[in-house]
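User: quick one, fold this
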Amino acid sequence: MGFLMAALKRCSKCKQEKPRGEFNKHAGRSDGLQSRCQGCGAADGRECYQNNREAYLEARRKRHYRRKYDISLADYDAQCDAQGGQCATCRSRDPMGSTPEAAFAVDHCHASGLNRGLLCMSCNRHLGLLEKRDHLWGPWLAYVINPPALPCLNKSTRGQETP
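Assistant:
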């Protein structure tokens, strides 16, 4: 009976006794487990997300731009303002994303790693395909030759030229 009791733990939220396997690990606790079961922890997480959705989305955008392009959200916004809130090649004001949070794509040169500017999703796809085939023409050629990127988009790679 003592072995069975040690295999169970009471959730501090729902007050049910559950197998220890239904609790996530927590190194700072004496038993090595969180006080709430996984179900209660997930429910609290969903509620917190719903109550703070805008803050979560903003934090996710910040992490995305920092991790993928090494720029801050302020740098992105400054570039968007400098481009007049439009695509650098077709001048569309619609980023053409599938979500309400859609934003312009940060275009970058894969060879040098330099960020070149902001493009709508359609132009970003077209540029990628044309660039791979060395068939740049029209607005895409002009864009690649003279990208509109502000210095803030290339902090860690200043002084390099785009190919």
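User: anything notable?
Assistant: The domain at 53-157 is CATH 3.40.1800.10 (His-Me finger endonuclease fold).
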